[in-house]
Design a protein that fits this description.
Elements: E1 22-26, H1 35-48, E2 53-57, H2 63-69, H3 71-76, E3 101-102, E4 108-111, H4 134-140, E5 147-151, H5 158-166, E6 169-174, H6 178-181, H7 184-194, E7 202-208, H8 216-229, H9 242-249, H10 254-257, H11 262-281
Parallel strand pairs: 1-5, 1-6, 2-4, 2-5, 6-7
Antiparallel strand pairs: 3-4
Length: about 290
């Protein structure tokens, strides 16, 4: 059985032509590889470019949500105020009022998560039924946004599976170390399996994160990734920069906290590369 994704037009101001609607999930089965951080900072770059961004926090740890709103508020949210409500068969299952929370930044909104989502992030059973499409149905109703970024937990359980079913594109953040690159085959296999239900799902690429060019081992693993996956490795490399950490402490994407920093510049470069790749794959060209 397949569940066809309905195309939606989006507006991209400035130098970009229109492309197909963008729904991107960031996935890896390892923690600490930069999924939440990339979503957090990338949302700022997209918003500053004039795009309306919706962040879906599908990780029960709620790190992305806490990045914008703080741990106290997020941890105290009731289940119906988090993405857990999408998996609940109760009265809130198809009622989304109050689920989307606006941030202090124009163009950025968040659907938060906390521990309530954990009960639904179970290992995949033999059959998930129609529950695996709930996130997709939700995203298809969000006509007020141009880009949807989905942060996934550090495993390939139910939350990651439903995120891939809802997505058009997958980005795989990978720190250039042994522990960061282990398990990539399982991630690729999961993507291939999801394509049986979401045939339009595509790999946007592997994103090298937490990189330190001073370390020989990091340069070596980056080169190894490029040999293995070629142009499926994004050209933009995200370093382990203090500006990212300071921005997170201030609860501001680096684009808003330190726009002139190298970290902010690289995040903007990443946002442009992502749009370029999507436009190229969709048959559109960037405006010169």
């Amino acid at each position: 059985m397949t569940y066809a994704k309905l195309p939606r037009a989006i507006r991209i101001s400035g130098e970009w032509t229109s492309v197909t609607a963008i729904t991107i999930c960031l996935i890896n089965q390892k923690g600490g590889c930069g999924k939440s951080s990339t979503c957090f900072h990338l949302s700022g770059a997209f918003a500053q470019a004039g795009l309306r961004v919706l962040l879906l926090d599908m990780d029960p740890q709620g790190s992305l949500s806490q990045g914008f709103f703080g741990s106290t508020l997020i941890e105290q949210l009731s289940a119906e105020r988090t993405l857990a409500r999408l998996f609940d068969d109760g009265e809130y299952a198809t009622n989304y009022d109050g689920l989307i929370r606006r941030t202090e930044f124009d163009g950025i909104a968040v659907c938060p998560a906390n521990h309530h989502l954990g009960q639904f992030n179970t290992p995949l059973p033999a059959s998930l039924g129609m529950d695996q499409y709930v996130l997709r149905e939700f995203t298809e109703e969000q006509t007020d946004f141009d880009v949807i970024l989905i942060d996934c937990p550090p495993n390939l359980y139910r939350c990651s599976w439903t995120a891939m079913i809802a997505a058009d594109w997958v980005v795989i953040p990978v720190p250039p170390e042994d522990f960061g690159t282990q398990g990539l085959r399982a991630v690729h296999q999961a993507i291939q399996q999801v394509r049986e239900l979401n045939p339009g799902l595509r790999r946007l690429g592997h994103l090298v994160t937490r990189h330190d060019r001073r370390l020989v081992v990091h340069r070596s693993y980056e080169q190894r990734l490029q040999r293995l996956y070629g142009d499926m490795v994004l050209e933009t490399v995200i370093p382990e920069a203090s500006a990212f950490k300071v921005a997170l402490t201030c609860r501001k994407p680096v684009e808003f906290s330190s726009r002139r920093s190298v970290a902010a510049s690289l995040t903007r470069t990443l946002s442009r590369e992502i749009l370029d790749r999507i436009a190229r794959d969709s048959g559109h060209r960037r405006v010169a």
